[in-house]
Amino acid sequence: MIRYGSSPFLECSSRGEHRFSAFSARIRQRGNRSIETLYQAAKIFEDASTGLSWQAAKGRKAINAAEAASFYAILWDEYIAENSHLLQVLRSAPGLQDQFGQPRHCCQATELWRIRNTAPTATVSPMNSRPHPATKGSIRLGNKRAGASAKPLAEEVAIDIDRTNPILGNPFVLKNHRDDVRRAEVIRLYNVKYQEDLTRRGPMTIATEELAERIRKGERLILMCWCAGLPMNKPCHGDLIIEQIGRLLPFKCE
Predict the structure, then answer these.
(1) C-alpha to C-alpha distance for 90 and 139, rounded to whole angstroms
(2) pTM for this entry
(3) Which of 19, 93, 97, 148 is spaced 20 to 30 A from 171 at the CA atom?
(4) C-alpha to C-alpha distance for 42 and 54, rounded to whole angstroms
């Protein structure tokens, strides 16, 4: 069992508050798939197999365990961003627990406790608790790789955010897509650059604001890189862009 805070503890699992169970929590911008499904599919095993069902992958040791753990944290961030009213539920509980949680393993209570204590208070306001009735705009990540599952739908506008985009592309090079350590590092470096730009309202900030405005007006956008969606399903710097857009909009990104 994993516990944080003090009693009474909110049980974050299928045996308690199901909205905080990785099996029940679904992310709309990732095809309405559950966090458990996405996380297990992101694992890569010694035989190079990946994209497996949660039943086939759960409990197996992955060679990209650190990257998968980072992706698991990102998924919970995205879920709460899409369901910001749940922050009120988390913050009303003095403690969180997961009766199935184990030390040194990914745990929903761990991620939710982190989010509970670090997410901006403003995101739980009534205005942010539901989509704006005047718009049907949305944003999600897509994959430019041939054969990838995350491709633009008929009503979506595709926007490249790889290095062909001089403003929002990640200038830090990842030569080997299987290098999980370097992937995490280039995303970290991008985030440092992005946060600095946000502080001074530079070109990256303006480009992000322009995307948010398009969504506000009802456009359905898909940011195209090389990471999201099966068979890759990798963390991407685009996650950071979508998180920032979620902070700018007075409604939830789909």
Answers:
(1) 25
(2) 0.50
(3) 148
(4) 10
Q: Domain segments of the chain: what residues?
A: 2-127, 131-248
- What single-letter DSSP state applies at residue 181? H
66-113 pLDDT, tens per residue?
888 888 988 998 899 888 888 888 888 889 999 998 888 899 999 999
Following DSSP, what letter does each residue of 49-112 receive, concatenated? -BS--HHHHTTPPPTTHHHHHHHHHHHHHHHHHHTTTHHHHHHH-SEEEETT--TTS--HHHHH
State how far the alpha carbon of 149 is from the alpha carbons of 59, 121, 124, 182, 228, in Å.
25, 35, 33, 24, 9
Tell me the CB-side half-sphere exposure of residue 145, using CA atoms within 13 A: 17
| Closest residue by Cα to residue 120 from 247, 243, 238 | 247
Cα dist. 102→77, 99, 106, 162 in Å? 21, 9, 8, 37
Please compute, for residue 194, the number of CA atoms within 13 A of its CA located in the half-sphere on the CB side: 22
Tokens of 84: 């910001």
Q: What string of DSSP letters covers 112-123? A: HHHHHHHS-GGG
